[in-house]
Amino acid sequence: MTKTSHPAEGPTPKPDARGPSIESRIHDHYDSLPDSERKLADVILERAADLSAFKASELSALAGVSKAAATRLFQRLGFDGFDEARLAARARRDWGSPLYMGASGSGAALSGPATLLEDEIDLLRRSVRRLSPAMIDDVAAAMVGARRIWLMGYRNSRFLADYLRWQLIQFRGDVTVLPGTGETAGEYLADLTERDILVVVALRRRVHGLLEVMEAARAVGTPIILVTDPTARRLPALADWTLTVETQGHFAFDSCGPALALCRFLAVTALGKAGRRGRAHMERVERRHETLDVFN
């Protein structure tokens, strides 16, 4: 995210998950802060990940400053008060910033691989409870019946889109991830029709432009499958099917495990629905592998 600087003497915009962080606001003002406010600023910088769990009086006590000094600092940073600053920190955690995920930005302490495994299993279980078997069935049938499948994803969502494509092309053709390296989406969107399907993988943190891509697809009647997490807003309203998985566990960095499992589940279900046609495609692929002597 691009940092936006603000002069020390001017107002700072209201908190927003995609706007300047509390840390950025403090650093912009740090050199001009009075000693008491600077002490509190240091405490906040050390505990930014846990800010939403504190009361203003607790932070003031940790810094050894008065409540009045705390009020002046938060107002100087552009907040009406501590409650608004705490909401801003919570919004950034919901947005998926690893700095705000878990204690001191590093999440719960890992006592060993078993701890992480338990966390992943919990995320998988919670995700399964969110998914409708009937919807999975419908989505798989739609992917088998589509003339072409277009997939899209950015950041971590990109490798998930690539993974799903790799499974699908083993038993059907015309599956493309867009845009390619150095390309833009417009050239692909111009070719979408109602006989295609667009699969949008949009786990947090989502980039600008996804909404416009989905609106363009919807405008020409292309059905949309959305794979996302509980923090998604607005995008589900544009999708024909929304599949939601959990990503936030007890440790730093979101988990892509449930989303990867969902992609595999979709591919396996679609393969079953592809029937003889899908099997014949797989056999042709395997014959080409043998002819090309691809594998050791």
TrEMBL record:
Gene Ontology terms, MF aspect: carbohydrate derivative binding; DNA binding; DNA-binding transcription factor activity
Stretches assigned to the HTH rpiR-type domain: 20-96
Keyword terms, alphabetized: DNA-binding, Transcription, Transcription regulation
Signal peptide annotation: none
Keyword DNA damage among UniProt keywords: no
Residue ranges constituting the SIS domain according to the UniProt record: 139-276
InterPro entries (alphabetical): Homeodomain-like_sf, HTH_RpiR, RpiR-like, RpiR-like_SIS, SIS_dom, SIS_dom_sf, WH-like_DNA-bd_sf
Disordered: annotated span: 1-31
Biological processes annotated in GO: carbohydrate derivative metabolic process
A Pfam cross-reference name: HTH_6
Keyword field contains Transcription regulation: yes
Name assigned to this protein: DNA-binding MurR/RpiR family transcriptional regulator
Organism the protein comes from: Roseospira visakhapatnamensis
